[in-house]
Amino acid sequence: MAEINVTPFVDVVLVLLIIFLITAPMMLGGIDVRVPKTETRTIQPEERLVLTVTRDRGVFLESQPISLDRLSKVLGGMVRRNPKAAVFLKADEAVAYGTVMKVMDVIKKAGIDRVGMVTEPVRPGGS
User: Fold this and answer.
1) Residues 6 or more apart in contact with residue 32 via CB below 8 angstroms
2) Do 106 and 68 touch, CB atoms closer than 8 A?
3) Residue pLDDT tens, the chain, 127 long
4) Domains in the chain, start-ordered, CATH in brackets?
């Protein structure tokens, strides 16, 4: 027999495909929060530095927890390196307004003028 049997190769490829399909959604980074919905178009949070405020008032820089004092220092250093730095603030809709404003205050005191609020688009015909 001079033919190559490709059946085992196809089996291995299909198993790897299934594994990648299952694990790919788990590889997405970030903190999971329910952001408010708006009708206006939103910017993609992956484009710049993302600050997240969770329901329990935890503050995360990208996916790392950070205190407001440390955040001020990190953002100050970022502004010195890049004066046109931008921050996207992603806050859970259940977080108190005052908590979000404290984080906004730290961002503004660090010298960052470009702040974007991350929201989810409203689906047509509903919430």
Assistant:
1) none
2) yes
3) 678 888 889 999 999 999 888 887 666 556 666 767 777 655 443 347 888 999 998 999 888 899 999 999 998 888 888 888 888 898 988 899 899 999 999 999 988 888 888 877 777 765 5
4) 37-121 (3.30.420.270)
CB 100 within 8 A of CB 35: no
Please report the pLDDT score of residue 67 as a whole number. 92
Tokens of 76: 């100050």
Structure tokens at 79: 């502004």
pTM equals 0.61
- Cβ-based neighbours of 53, under 8 Å, separated by 6 or more: 33, 59, 60, 89, 90, 91, 92, 95, 99, 100, 103
Compute the distance between CA of residue 108 and CA of residue 75 in angstroms, rounded to an integer. 10
Token pair of 125 as six digits:
């015909």
